């Protein structure tokens, strides 16, 4: 379509293509401005369900007036009856590409997170749930302003969810457990996806990974991720705590409103964490139980009896050497299994 004119829009370049449409950069000859046009893919044009989803995106986004949500100018139709959305055009790149380019500075991550949260809160206040929040749907402009795009799966809380029978809508690695299971979802599914976004920005990888979709879904529903600080030790523990709360399996245990976590992020942004506090958070994060297996070693000595390793162990200097060895073993066994509420007791007995 490049070089063609549709209505009063001259197509300049192809911007990208996704499940919900093909986007082009275009020149609005009437208003002399650059815009983005999103067309429903031709193979879906005859599908009334897909058309309705496409219209749903335009309506959902156009109802939101927020600097962190992509502006919708209008929805129009070609002479052949093909629908397209006219949107604001921004210079910059998707968050997905930014993550792929390498580590993002922590201050930038917090800045992006706050802006994403502000856009989500606006949507949630209007009763709109995005349901497909992911790096490809977050655009970062050249002046570091965040724009949430693609409300194609958005659900208005007051209306019936638009879903084909037997289908689950969303992008699997970013979907909440309840969304994976096809349950009714509310705004807290976006809070889960927000946690996945933050995890990926902080570590460069998604919290749940598998080559097979079935295994990936099982992991999302049943397993907890490795703490952020295990992968990126420089991340303050308080941020790790925020991310893990977003990724709680039970929606009742997550943040109940996006604004709740915004307040905590603002505190981090405004009050840099002292180095000693940062170390405390990191230590606490590494030793808190999460979700795969946690081994509790009981140390029984001939002259000293401890149910756990504590500073008081120093009272038995003759056992310090073996105690250090045990601690090293304990950390080796547990470093990949610090994430579980299932406790497996193991007893190490030393008599010498």
Architecture overview:
- The chain is of the alpha+beta class and 352 residues long.
- The protein has 3 domains: 84 residues, Phosphorylase Kinase, domain 1 (2-Layer Sandwich), CATH 3.30.200; 196 residues, Transferase(Phosphotransferase) domain 1 (Transferase(Phosphotransferase), domain 1, Orthogonal Bundle), CATH 1.10.510; 56 residues, no CATH class.
- Helices cover 36% and strands 20% of the residues.
- It contains 11 helices and 14 strands.
- It has a 6-stranded antiparallel beta sheet, with helices on one face. The chain has a 3-stranded antiparallel beta sheet with strand order 7-9-10. The protein has a 3-stranded mixed beta sheet with strand order 13-12-14, covered by helices on one side.
- Helix 3 runs antiparallel to helix 5, helix 3 runs antiparallel to helix 9 and helix 5 runs antiparallel to helix 8.
- The chain starts with a strand and ends with a strand.
Secondary-structure element sequence? Answer: EEEEHEEEHHEEEEHHHHHHHEEHE
Mind telling me the CATH superfamily name of the largest domain?
A: Transferase(Phosphotransferase) domain 1
- Note poorly predicted spans: 157-167, 276-352
Distance between the termini: 81 Å
Write the CATH architecture name of the largest domain.
Orthogonal Bundle
């Amino acid at each position: 379509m490049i070089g063609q004119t549709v209505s009063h829009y001259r197509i300049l370049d192809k911007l990208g293509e996704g499940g919900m449409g093909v986007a082009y950069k275009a020149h609005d000859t009437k208003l002399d401005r650059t815009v983005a046009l999103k067309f429903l893919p031709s193979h879906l044009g005859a599908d009334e369900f897909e058309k309705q989803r496409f219209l749903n995106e335009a309506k959902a986004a156009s109802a939101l007036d927020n600097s962190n949500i992509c502006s919708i100018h209008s929805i129009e139709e070609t002479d052949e009856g093909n629908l397209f959305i006219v949107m604001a055009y921004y210079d910059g790149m998707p968050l997905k590409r930014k993550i792929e380019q390498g580590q993002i500075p922590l201050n930038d991550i917090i800045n992006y997170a706050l802006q994403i949260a502000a856009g989500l809160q606006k949507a949630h206040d209007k009763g709109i749930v995005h349901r497909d929040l992911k790096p490809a749907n977050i655009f970062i402009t050249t002046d570091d302003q965040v724009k949430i795009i693609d409300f194609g799966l958005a659900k208005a809380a007051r209306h019936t969810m638009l879903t084909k029978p037997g289908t689950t809508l969303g992008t699997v690695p970013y979907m909440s457990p309840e969304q994976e299971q096809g349950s009714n979802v509310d705004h807290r599914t976006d809070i889960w996806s927000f946690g996945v976004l933050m995890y990926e920005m902080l570590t460069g990888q998604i919290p749940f990974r598998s080559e097979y979709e079935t295994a990936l879904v099982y992991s999302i529903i049943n397993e907890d991720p490795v703490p952020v600080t295990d992968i990126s030790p420089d991340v303050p523990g308080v941020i790790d705590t925020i991310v893990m709360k977003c990724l709680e399996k039970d929606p009742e245990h997550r943040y109940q409103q996006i604004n709740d976590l915004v307040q905590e992020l603002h505190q981090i942004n405004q009050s840099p964490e002292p180095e000693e506090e940062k170390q405390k958070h990191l230590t606490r994060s590494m030793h808190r139980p999460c979700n795969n297996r946690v081994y509790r070693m009981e140390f029984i000595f001939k002259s000293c009896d401890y149910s756990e390793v504590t500073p008081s162990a120093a009272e038995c200097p003759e056992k310090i050497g073996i105690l250090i060895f045990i601690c090293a073993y304990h950390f080796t066994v547990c470093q990949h299994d610090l994430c579980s509420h299932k406790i497996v007791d193991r007893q190490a007995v030393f008599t010498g």
